[in-house]
């Protein structure tokens, strides 16, 4: 199962109205079972619908579903987090919009994480939580440090250690120094594993080689569930033999990706899955008892 994060740089109608850009985006997204798209800025939602329709027109083997956050931001400029996933490969269990309003706490996030809880069907993990990130460049250090608090909330909420933090961290260049990085709790705590190295270029612009985009996993079990050396940027500029001008029409970022190990043989996991079924049912029962609302319906119906 392949997971990715991709800052598409102001994704909206201008992107999907360009046939070459739309075709490239569909080719990129089709590489993944689950992908986070950052910088969705289209207020109408039409661009998301166009992308989903084209994605499902091209992909006849796997159907893609989506999950879209509300519009997030402190000013008139707002963005949305978009998740696209193959619904025959992974099941959406729950979603949670983190609210940055803790008692005696600062307003840390320009765009509070919209967090999804999934159950993969064919990996070693019984579940996985994705915490999306797109920091405001001038506040990157503060926001990245505050992600530790988000992690604690989610870990307690869903009773799982299988947590992945991914997105555009803006943690390089002038935004966050190496010295400042050491103070960030999800960096200093050695239980967090940063899968994209500090010297890996995740930008499509050849004028810089910054490592803005990252994937971070928590714990040894999560790390062991990753295919070794699978975490890397996807250089679509090179892979699709594009000019730099054409690549930058798509985005100034590359996607970053990682692959999860497939499920081991049935005899080794049969008891594990029986326990997992009980846990899933118990979680469902708990939501029914507490009256917790699960507002995770798709924004659009199935489009074929």
Automatic annotation (TrEMBL):
Active site: 79, 134
A Pfam family assignment: Exo_endo_phos
Keywords, comma-separated and alphabetical: Disulfide bond, Endonuclease, Hydrolase, Nuclease, Signal
A GO BP entry: DNA catabolic process
Recorded superkingdom: Eukaryota
InterPro entries cross-referenced by the UniProt entry: DNase_I (IPR016202), Endo/exonu/phosph_ase_sf (IPR036691), Endo/exonuclease/phosphatase (IPR005135)
UniProt cross-references to SUPFAM superfamilies, sorted A to Z: DNase I-like
Gene Ontology CC annotations of this record: nucleus
Residue ranges annotated for the Endonuclease/exonuclease/phosphatase domain, each copy included: 4-253
Protein's UniProt keywords contain ATP-binding: no
One Gene Ontology molecular-function label: DNA binding
Family: Belongs to the DNase I family.
PANTHER family: DEOXYRIBONUCLEASE
Protein name: Deoxyribonuclease
Biological classification of the source: Eukaryota, Metazoa, Chordata, Craniata, Vertebrata
């Amino acid at each position: 199962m392949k997971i990715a994060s991709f800052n598409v740089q102001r994704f909206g109608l201008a992107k999907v109205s360009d046939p070459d850009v739309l075709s490239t985006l569909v080719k990129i997204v089709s590489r993944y079972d689950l992908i986070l798209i950052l910088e969705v800025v289209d207020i109408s939602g039409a661009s998301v619908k166009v992308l989903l329709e084209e994605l499902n027109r091209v992909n006849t083997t796997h159907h893609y579903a989506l999950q879209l956050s509300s519009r997030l931001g402190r000013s008139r400029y707002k963005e949305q987090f978009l998740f696209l996933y193959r619904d025959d490969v992974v099941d959406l269990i729950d979603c949670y919009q983190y609210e940055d309003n803790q008692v005696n706490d600062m307003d840390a996030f320009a765009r509070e994480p919209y967090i999804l809880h999934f159950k993969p069907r064919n990996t070693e993990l019984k579940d996985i939580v994705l915490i999306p990130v797109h920091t405001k460049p001038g506040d990157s250090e503060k926001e990245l440090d505050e992600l530790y608090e988000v992690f604690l909330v989610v870990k307690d909420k869903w009773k799982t250690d299988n947590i992945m933090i991914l997105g555009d961290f803006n943690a390089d260049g002038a935004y966050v120094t190496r010295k400042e990085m050491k103070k960030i709790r999800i960096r200093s705590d050695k239980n967090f594993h940063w899968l994209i190295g500090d010297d890996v270029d995740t930008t499509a612009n050849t004028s810089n080689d910054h490592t803005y985009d990252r994937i971070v996993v928590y714990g040894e079990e999560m790390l062991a569930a990753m295919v070794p050396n699978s975490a890397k940027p996807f250089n679509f500029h090179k892979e699709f033999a594009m000019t730099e001008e054409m690549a930058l029409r798509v985005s100034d970022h590359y996607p970053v990706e990682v692959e999860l190990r497939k499920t081991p043989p049935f005899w080794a996991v049969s008891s594990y899955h029986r326990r997992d079924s009980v846990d899933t049912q118990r979680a469902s029962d708990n939501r029914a008892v507490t009256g917790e609302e699960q507002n995770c319906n798709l924004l659009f119906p199935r489009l074929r």
